[in-house]
Amino acid sequence: MKLAIVLVLTAAGLLAVLWGMDVQDAAQSLAAFDWRSFVLAWSCYWMTQAIRCWRTRILLGRPVPFWRLMSITGIGYLAITVIPFRMGELVRPTLLTDEGVPFGEGVAAIFMERLADILVLLGFLLSVGFMVELPPAGIMVPTPWLPTPETDVMAAGQRLFGISVGGGVTLLLALTLAGDRALVYTDKLPAGLMVRRFVEGARRLMVNPLNMARVLGLSLLVWVFTLIAVWASMASFPGLPSDLGAVVFTWTLTLTGLAAIPTPGFFGGFEAMCVAALTVLHADGDKARTFALLLHLGQFAFTISIGTYYVLKEGLSLRDLVKRSASRQV
Questions:
Q1: What gap in Å lies between CA 181 and CA 58, rounded to an integer?
Q2: Fewer CB within a 10 Å sphere, N or C end of the chain?
Q3: Banded pLDDT at 46 (limits 50, 70, 90)
């Protein structure tokens, strides 16, 4: 039932974005698109994948083989992409247990990754106003499921990610300062061992500022290569702006939608936020819709291809991995 509801919302989101699009105009835009830009884009996606593996290895503090991390990362991001509500996040910690990494430590590493990503995204959200002239009323998108019919996504994103960063940093400081006294109580819980491993992993990272600086630097580097990929696609699509401010603004707003609307494959939310950004940049509506779908499908195809390759290579079942991670029998 939950999956059915999510799929309906996904379809509704896509329909709302693509409704009324001129198919002939979209076909003409696609015919004029330079498809060779996908070579550069996919090369950048490969680089982001490798950087994420390097970042995970630093966070784990263990000599997990790099190519094994490539496999784990590919499968993990496949799970995150195709499974709603980001329930695939625990697939990577589950696979890491096969390399001798306690489940709690794996969860701590993934938590730190996400915190670093959100911190970088928050920085870009706060800076885009200096790159692009924003509407005085904000960037309003329809939100019929909320008490207000429209929401300023820039302001909402800044609040959401600000609270996430503040809450995450507060949690890590509390874990570092609490010492073993708090673990005396958590050890009595059914998941007490996982909590202990999480705390130990988080403490190890918190007491090493150099590693934290490396993690933040690598997180920023992931953004750099992703922005190059987005720029390659925007510059090759007729009628769209492709200056630095436009690229940063478009991708920042699109990522905000991905975080807020975790539908399967992120379809619906991705297109809605990308179109909203391009509309602010005065792009033609049909071209914005066509490009949003094209950009999304390019990224989606990369994630699915890499993840599926590693799943088949290792003879794994994604469904079994999700069940295993949900039950935490690791």
A1: 28
A2: N
A3: very high
Rg of the chain's alpha carbons, rounded to an integer?
21
Beta strands in 70-222 (DSSP E): 140-142, 150-152
Q: How many helices (H) and strands (E) does the chain have?
A: 14, 2
Tally the residues of the chain: 330
In order of 20, 80, 168, 301, the CA distances from 9 in angstroms are 19, 18, 29, 21
Q: Which two tokens stand for residue 17?
A: 């974005």
Which tokens sit at 58? 């630093």
Distance from C-alpha of 79 to C-alpha of 87, rounded to nearest angstrom: 8
| Token pair listed for 157 | 């994103």
| Tokens of residue 136, six digits | 């005085």
In this predicted model, what pLDDT tens digit does every residue of 185-228 receive, in sequence order? 666 665 566 666 677 767 776 677 788 889 999 999 999 999 99
Q: Residue 19, exposed/middle/buried by CB under 10 A (0-12, 13-18, 19+)?
A: exposed
Neighbouring C-beta atoms of residue 229, cutoff 10 Å:
26
**Residue 204 Cα distances to 90, 112, 172, 241, angstroms:** 21, 12, 11, 45
Number of neighbouring beta carbons within 10 Å of residue 179: 11
pLDDT at 329: 45
In this predicted structure, the answer to whether residue 34 has a pLDDT above a threshold of 70 is yes
Residue 140: strand pairing partners: 152
pLDDT 10s digits, 100-127: 888 878 888 888 888 889 889 888 888 8
